[in-house]
Amino acid sequence: MRRAVLGFCCLLFCYSVGAANAQQALKVGLVMSYTGQFTDPATQMDNGIKLYMKQHGDAVAGRKVMLIRKDSAGAPDAAKRLAQELVVRDEVDILAGFVLTPEALTVADLSAEAKKFMVVMNAATAIITTKSPYITRSSLTLPQNCELLGSWAYKNGVRKAYIMVADYGPGHDAEASFERGFEHLREGYVGLLTMLLTGRIIVPILAAITATLVVTYTRLRRPNPIVVRIVVAAVVLLPFAFYLHDLAYAAFVANR
Fold first, then answer.
1. Are residues 95 and 173 in the same domain?
2. Pair (47, 30) in one structural domain
3. Containing structural domain, residue 183
4. Rounded to two decimals, what is the model's pTM?
5. What's the DSSP call for residue 168?
6. pLDDT of the residue at 179
7. Which end of the chain is more exposed for a tag (fewer CB within 10 A), N or C?
8. pLDDT tens for each residue of 80-107
9. Residue 114 binned pLDDT confidence (cut-offs 50, 70, 90)
10. Residue 124 — left, alpha, or beta (φ > 0 → left; ψ -120 to 50 → alpha)?
């Protein structure tokens, strides 16, 4: 919530100086995931905005602030389409919100083309602000946290680290920055492996396990001991399979 309040203060400040038309509303388009699996950060940011306006009013430099909320549901293509609608149809002055990195990156080009000020309130991949001269960020970047965490871990006696990250921008930032902080202080060889958990691997495996269980219960009316043992073994060996995958990835793909 503090990030949202900071971001809202930032975007209002940028329009508080030299406001030309005191009667024209200041339109702020909020593009956030109000539905779907990423509703929590969107809700917290929206509550932060409501709190700020409750405490400080809904006008700045004589202009009433009008909020136009759009639900991206966490989908980058939806975020870009909604941002285009906000710019073309609603004629907003500011684009704000953006819970996820893919959303922010897809809208960055639009911000640059339309010369619209854009406030990233959450998305944390470092490169986002380089994609448009009109972008500012009120939250953080993953390297700010993870590089310090890597240094802290080494200073506190950790000599081998295993990183598990999401296979997209923020995860790659977290991996690289943690490793940078960790290796900066190391003496000698310290093993550092990255486990990339991708939907391409996890989803088919979990789907196969689920299908096996469903067939076992519906067709045989009771658990088949052999199938149950196979399923249990698959679940137990799953982390080991990911580990082998990452070894192979590092050996044959990453070092090309």
1. no
2. yes
3. 141-196
4. 0.67
5. S
6. 84
7. C
8. 999 999 999 999 999 999 999 999 999 9
9. very high
10. alpha
